[in-house]
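Field reference: sequence -> structure
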Amino acid sequence: MWIYRIQCCLLAVAHLYLLNHLVYSQESDSLYKPQNLTCVTHKLVDVICTWTTESPDDFGYRYKFCYTSSMSLQNCSITEEKSQTFPLILFDSVEIEISTFNSSKNMETPIATNQFVITENDINFIPPAPRIHRLTPDYISDTLELEWYDGGSDIRYSMDATWEIQILYKDPMEEVALITYKSKLNGNDTLLHWKWTSNIPFNCTTHYVRIRCFLHENMFFGKISWSEWSKPADIPGKDTDYTRGKMYPTDKVVLVGSNVTFCCVWRKEESNFDFHLSPELCPPQGCQNATLSNWSKLIQVQNVPASQSSGRNIICRGKNSKGGNPIYGTVLFSGYPPDVPQNVSCETKDLKEITCKWEPGRPTSLDGSRKTSYTLSERISGITIPHPRDKTTYQCNFPVLNNQTTYDITIHATNRLGKTNASLYFSIKTRIHPSPPTDLTVTDNSPTNISLSWHLPGNFMKTQLKFQIKVSNSTFSKLKNVHLDGTENSLYTISMDNLHPYTFYTFQVRCSANEPFFWKWGNWSKGLSHQTLEAPPARKLDVWREKDAEEGTVIIFWKPLSILDSNGVIEGYEISWIVPEMPIKKQSVPEFLNNTKIKLGSNDYIFTVVAKNKAGLSPPSLINSAEIPVGPVPTESGIATGDGVQITWLPDPSVTCGYKVRWCYEPGPCTAVSWETFPSNVTNPIIRSTLFQPGVRYHFSVYGCKDNGYQLLKYVDGYTKELEPAVAPVFNVMKTTSDSISIKWQDIPTEEIRGFIKGYLLHFGKGEEGNTKPKAYESVKAMRQHYNALRYKFARFMKHVDAMRHYYNELRNNNERVTRQYYWMQQQYNTLRSIFGRYISQSYLMQQHYNILRNDLARFTSYAYWMKHRYDVLKYNFDKYIMQTNQRRQW
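Structure field:
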């Protein structure tokens, strides 16, 4: 019995031992069991899978990695690393078995095994980390150029790529900018370029650049992630160079309104630097500044205004260990990009050279080396001409090209802030603007005709030109247009006629291309003055004679010819007359006289008077010395016109050669005779002269010219303007009685009367003995003034009476019209009131008809809806019947 119990105890102990060993074995296997399988692909070709175990000690263990899918057999490999690579299998699941083996034992019994099933969705696509090929900084413009290969050869097909470019600065690094760049992979390694301009000068502190990529593979259903960042590339700053201090950027040129960052870099032994800027750049509240490193500091200036051509100074000031105050500075230039060139025009003066001009437009506020530069380019020929910077005129010249008539020019404007251009397409035939003609010469052909020649430089052999000649003198100016073909020697000649003899003319010439290529006139040439030749006087002399019967003489008078009629310099006068049975008698008179005395004797003669110059004689003027006797000659008064005297006479049919009005300016004997000649059809002329004076009486004689001599028709006394007498009449009381008085006065002298006497006004009153003045009036002059005042008041009163009478007539007429209009409006009112009453009655009737129609319309609408419903039912039944009929027919 106890033996049986011993056996049972032994079995129990053995069971416990086995159970403990089994538990320990299971715990030991789980530490080496592969788990946390992660699979990634970098090039969509292979898959890299990694896993972990819980065992802290991986030394002395190997792993068997087996994978299989429905499209491939099982593939196994042995690795000591916890990772393995196998080809990427798409559109299928992959079964993976990973077993852990002890390296000191055989590979037949694994320590632990785990199985996994992965699909495409479980694989993470992470592109390879890119590498920067080259980083090129430009410290002047603070622009970097980044170059890198896109790794397209690692991907077998085209794919869109997105790159993130990160800019960092300072230490520790801070992000300045994060930019996205897009490209497309094409299966080849393509070198990509990217440029970026920093707001912070590169010299201020070190900048770093790194990139990563993201590939857009739409056919891959797994997770797609960004690649790892590339290794940073750096742009060293000057804040690590402790040997010198400076401000950056140096002489910066920016656009007006920009935000600019400046930095100050100082030496190792210096510190406590502050910025000093003008109020235009930094307002009283100050500009934002920050520390970059132990030896650099920056300040930001917002919305920079336009600067002067010399720029604005930016200064930083600090301290050093020796007690000094180091100062560093820079200059800021702010302006505008070049404006589009304005008013671009091109022309040629001689068909040998083309000149193109333009205007710069808006000022840029930049000067010196920062000034806008211009370049002219011609597209067809490829010519490029730079505009010199030192020229103040904006133009370029280039030669006319053979066999090219059209030109396509572009003016390029460039400065540090931008560039622009303006173009012009033109034909050289329509841009001819000739130079002013030169070497003008005149050749006399006759007193009224000359030949005008000039020289026009240029290659105009195949061009028809249009010339305009300006002819002017002291009194007039006129233009003449002529059309001439271009000449080989550039010399042109025309004839000018219809000129006036012995006259100074000024000739000017300008030129243009003839139609249809006319563009604009060239400038006028310098004026050439020339005097035409003399010609015989153009008009005959105006002559008169004064006969002295007692002396038997006659004085011949004539008026000198005007400069226009002289046609030259008058050298003298010739008077000739015929004496019966004797040769013609002649008498010469020098040019400075205008009369001569000739002895008649007992006869009368017809005298001929001519003026002469170097070219010849004037037409002859004839005058008869005979005077036809007449009876008593009346004396009349002329009419004063203010500027002359109007004289009238009755027409005389026997007058054949006109009328003469003769007068003298001075009273008494006439030493200077004046006269006017009038044709036979004039009988009421106004005699005008600059020598006439108001209040002076002039005595006129009117003569009629007949075949046998002159006949005195009348005398006329007249004033140009009458004035009050200069003196009062001198009178004496000759005799007085109890009821009468006799007064006598003397005539007022003619020179004092100053007008025609219409009568005398006598004023008298009772006065004291010995007092010749009436009490009521101080003098006759006072009486006359009082009388004139009363007459003026009476005239004004009569004007008011006439105005009142006119106003009264208008009121009366208006009253009659208003009364008629009132009766008419009353009739219209009555008519409208009756029409309005009828309209009210009709309105009530129409309201009743409207209500009836509205009720009928409502009933009709209800009936229409019912008819529509019936129509829909019938149509449905009809369509159903047609469909059944068709089915029967097909069956």
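Note: Residues 1-28, 772-780 have pLDDT under 50 and may be disordered.
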